[in-house]
Each structure stands twice: as C-alpha cells, then as structure tokens.
Amino acid sequence: MLGWIDTLLQGILLGGLYSLYATGLSVIFGIMRLVNLAHGDLIVLGAFLILAATAAGAPLILAFAVVVPLMFFIGYALQSALLNRALGRNILPPLLITFGLSIIVQNGLLETFSADTRRLDIGPLQSASLPLGSGLAVGLMPLICLGAAIGVIVLLNSVFYRTPLGRAFRATSDDVEIAQLMGINNRSIYALTMGIALAVCAIAGFFLGARANFDPSIGPARLLYAFEAVIIGGLGSLWGTLAGGIVVGLAQTIGAHIDPEWQILSGHVAFLIVLVIRPRGLFPRAVD
Amino acid sequence: MAVLETRELTAFYGDFQALFDITFTLDEGETVAVIGANGAGKSTFLKAIAGLLPRPAAAVRLDGRDIGTLPAYEIVKLGVALVPEGRRLFSSLSVEENLLVGAYGRRRGGAWSLATVYQLFPMLRERRHSPSMALSGGQQQMVAIGRALMSNPRILLCDELSLGLAPIVIRDIYAALADIKARGTSVVLVEQDLAHAMAVADRAYCFMEGRVSLTGRPQELTRDAIHAAYFGL
Ligand SMILES: Nc1ncnc2c1ncn2[C@@H]1O[C@H](COP(=O)(O)OP(=O)(O)O)[C@@H](O)[C@H]1O
Ligand SMILES: [Mg+2]
C-alpha cells in the first residue's frame, strides 16, 4: 500500500518535470501553430549551458540566472533571423527548419561536450528529502521542480491574461491577419514567444540535469514526452499541459512499479488511451 | 486636399490580378462608397490600403505621403483603421478585450475610449465580459466597429457592415456610423447593398472585375448607369 502511495507521489513529481518540458512547446504551438522539433534538444542545450557556466566557476544559482535570459535571447534571435523568414500559409518550411535545428544542436553539443553523460552538481540538495510520516518521503529537488512548473504556468498565464501584451499574444494566436490591423507586429510577437519558450527550456534543462544524467542524444525523447503532455492536456491550455505532464509521469512510474521495463512504454500507452477516449485532450479550449 | 489617395493601385493573389490601376481619392470628412458585385475586388482594395496585401510603393498615399511600403501594423498607427468583412472578432477574447486590443498600437490621441465606444453602443457595455462569439451578428459588428475606433482613426475603412444583418440592426449600425462621421472621421464604405451605401455617401465608386467602372455623386448616378457598371451589361 505504502509502495503505491509512494509511486503515485513520485509520478506526480515526475509530471512536474514533464510539464516544464511541455510548457514551452505548448506556448509555441498555441501562438504560432508551430511544432518545434528541436524543443527537446534545446532543453538539453539549456542543461549543457548551465553545466558549462558552472564548469567555468560560476555558482549553480548564478549559472541558472544567466542561462535563462541567455536562452531567451537565443530564442528571440532564432525566430527573428530564421523562422520568421519561413512564415506563410505552408507549415512545412518552418517545421523542416526546426528539424534541421534539432540535428545541428545535437551535433554541436556532441562536438563541444562529447557523448559522455553528465550531471549538474546540486550538492546536498541531491539527496535532501522531506519526510511525510509513516515512512513516506519526497525528494526536495523534485518538489521544487513541481513548484517551478506551477510557478512558470502562473507567471505565463498572468502575462497572457492580465496584460496588454498578453492580449496581443492571444489576438495573434486567434487571427494573425486581423491582429496586424490592431497595430500588433506579429513577427515581434513570434520572436518574444520563442524567447519565452526557450527561457522555459533553460529552466527545464536545469531540472533535467539536476535530476538525472544527460548527454547530447536525449533531446528527442524529451520532445516526445513534452508532445504527449501537450496533446493529453489539450491544446491551448497551460494548466492542461501540467495535467498532461502529470498523466505521463504517473503512467511511467506506475508502469515501472509493476515492471521496471514498462516505464517508458506505459507513458506512451497512457497517451494513446487518452487520445482514443478524448481526442481533443483533457482540457481543450472551448473554441476552434 | 485628399487625405487618402490611390494611384494605379494593383493587387495580386499569386498570379491572379485582382485590382487593375485603381485611382481613387477620399477628402477630409468625406464618406465614399465603393460598390460592386461579389468578387469585384472591393475587399481587396481595402486590404491593399490597410497594408494586408503587397502593393506598388507609390500607389497609396496618406496626406500626400507614400504608405505603400508600410506594413499593416504601422498604417493603423497613422490613423487608418479597417473593419474587416465578416467581423473577424478575436474568438478567445471577451468583448471588452476585443475593444482593448484595438487600442494596442495606438499612437494617436482622440475621442475614442472604452467609455465613448460604450456610449455609442450601450448594448456592448452590458455584455462586456461575454466571449465575443456569444454575441449576435449585429452586436459582433458593433464590437468590430468599436475595436477599429479604439485606434482613434481619421479614416475608417468599412467592409460590408450590413452583411447578414436584419434590417432593424442595419439601421442601428448606420445610425452609429452617422455619429462617427459627425466627429469628422472620413469613411470608405464598401457595400453590396446599394440603398444603404448611396444614402450616406458623398461620392461612389463602382468596381467591376478589379476596375473602376463608374464614379460620381449618388444623385447623379442613374439606376441604369449603376446597373451597367455593376454587371457590365
Ligand atoms: N485570398 C485570396 N486568394 C485568391 N484569390 C482571392 C483571394 N481573395 C479574393 N480573391 C479573388 O479576388 C477577387 C476579388 O475578391 P474580393 O476583393 O474579395 O471581392 P469583393 O470584396 O468585391 O467581393 C475575386 O475574384 C476573388 O475570387
Ligand atoms: Mg468583399
């Protein structure tokens, strides 16, 4: 019994990490209708940049504080210089660019950091845990990660739903042609969107590196989990994305509890089951 | 002097040419109707002015200044607002948010604010927090007009305001348009409905297959002339 409760807790906490993977993807898709195939690799890039900053002597927290805005600027530049040029009615060109980007990032990381597995050194936090009584405990770092996932969503939602800039984001998402008639420069909205998504990638990369080993090749699997979380949650809702992340996390830990070999497969099976039962996801947006 | 002018304006959708050398003027405070059959190029004309379609650099002038190279989001800041055909409200935004987003790029002072738009369309105040898609067609049209006004335009481009609306609602919309004109706003009014357009217009252009087929003051244009200009008979 206690084993099951522990499994469920671990699953929810793992869901926090998957939700962080998925939030940037969800924002990009929601506003630009673009699937960023390099998303997982950009998360791994975030982890490596933090690693490189700590290797250069920066304390972990400083490395994090520098890499998050750095990734924002990389995203902003990437969208303005590259992806905005491929905008148009045809969705294939931007998709192909992100596919190429995925390969470039993976190979760039391989070239720079080699194929060795790495881990961020988070010191005593690594093993710190919070006792819940009757023998149960949760790791402090996974708990912080879930808190960060929720915090990111609260922050993004308050920007999207409570500020003039956020209205411009939503208007652009609804109807990009008419949005321009309101004085909204859709290209700069898109650049900001990519910047925000990559900043969240950096946060996700931090928790990825703090929680598990990583190497340049693991991006595509993160993309897959993120993608599943977004679809399960329903397009257009960040809270849905959190729920989707938790569903994938729970499915994986429950699967692993039954048989360790089932961990990854169970996540995918849960995804398929949700797709069959609710093709539009758990929390689809009311319109469109 | 003309506030808005087009000279040999052309527009294309891919290889298809939708407008041929349209020469057009709008004077300060004037209301000009653009009429013509479905597919004549009226919406294309408004979109080309508003900057939503590529057009020759010197084909559109505002106060004598070429604006043919400016993107749509810059043109609205110069005081040219478009009420698009079919309303095109932002579906995930509430009524009030639709109005507020209309002021997003506002660079101009002027009479329009949430308060004055609600004065013009009191019905909208009661429904300000409704999702925009929950409104009736007439109310949605009011939101679309209000949204355009929020940028404090001096030139309002209206595309088929009466499309799909009941006569009594059309009357309300046109009453509001009279208020807007009374504040000195110049208006380009695209309509398929001749009677309404001719009743408020100072001048009219009739489009046929992407060309101006007739122009003049409403009282000078006979039914037969308009009929011929509409259908090329
Ligand atoms: N997005 C588009 N792509 C291709 N052709 C278009 C498009 N929009 C309009 N057209 C064509 O351009 C011509 C003029 O259309 P439009 O300006 O919408 O006419 P109107 O508003 O007078 O009914 C029509 O032949 C129409 O089929
Ligand atoms: Mg039209």
Descriptive notes:
- The complex is a heterodimer of chains A (288) and B (233).
- By secondary structure, chain A is mainly alpha-helical.
- Chain A has helices at 2-32, 39-55, 60-81, 92-113, 140-162, 164-174, 176-181, 186-211, 219-233, 238-258, 263-277; strands at residues 129-133, 136-139.
- Chain A is built from 11 helices and 2 strands, in the order H-H-H-H-E-E-H-H-H-H-H-H-H.
- In chain A, helix 2 (39-55) runs parallel beside helix 4 and helix 9 (219-233) crosses helix 10.
- Chain B is an alpha/beta fold and 233 residues long.
- Chain B has one domain (4-231): P-loop containing nucleotide triphosphate hydrolases (Rossmann fold).
- In chain B, the strands form 2 sheets. A 6-stranded mixed sheet of chain B has the order 6-7-8-3-9-10, with helices on both faces.
- The radius of gyration of chain B is 17 Å and the shape is globular.
- The mean pLDDT of chain B is 94.
- Adenosine-5'-diphosphate is lined by residues 13, 16, 18, 36, 38-44 of chain B.
**Beta fraction of chain A:** under 5%
Q: From the helix content, strand content and strand pairing of chain A, which structural class follows? A: mainly alpha
The total count of strands of chain A amounts to: 2
CATH level 3 topology of chain B: Rossmann fold
Keywords, please?
heterodimer, A: 288 residues, mainly alpha, ABC transporter involved in vitamin B12 uptake, BtuC, two-stranded antiparallel sheet, 11 helices, 73% helix, globular, B: 233 residues, alpha/beta, Rossmann fold, six-stranded mixed β-sheet, four-stranded antiparallel β-sheet, 33% helix, binds adenosine-5'-diphosphate, binds magnesium ion
How is the secondary structure organized here?
The complex is a heterodimer of chains A (about 290) and B (about 230).
Chain A: H1 2-32, H2 39-55, H3 60-81, H4 92-113, E1 129-133, E2 136-139, H5 140-162, H6 164-174, H7 176-181, H8 186-211, H9 219-233, H10 238-258, H11 263-277
Antiparallel strand pairs in A: 1-2
Helix pairs in contact in A: 1-5, 1-8, 1-9, 1-10, 2-3, 2-4, 2-8, 2-9, 3-8, 5-6, 5-8, 9-10, 9-11, 10-11
Chain B: E1 2-13, E2 16-27, E3 31-36, H1 42-50, E4 60-62, E5 65-66, H2 72-75, E6 80-83, H3 95-102, H4 114-120, H5 122-126, H6 137-149, E7 155-159, H7 167-182, E8 186-191, H8 194-200, E9 203-208, E10 211-216, H9 223-231
Parallel strand pairs in B: 3-8, 3-9, 6-7, 7-8
Antiparallel strand pairs in B: 1-2, 1-4, 4-5, 9-10
Helix pairs in contact in B: 3-6
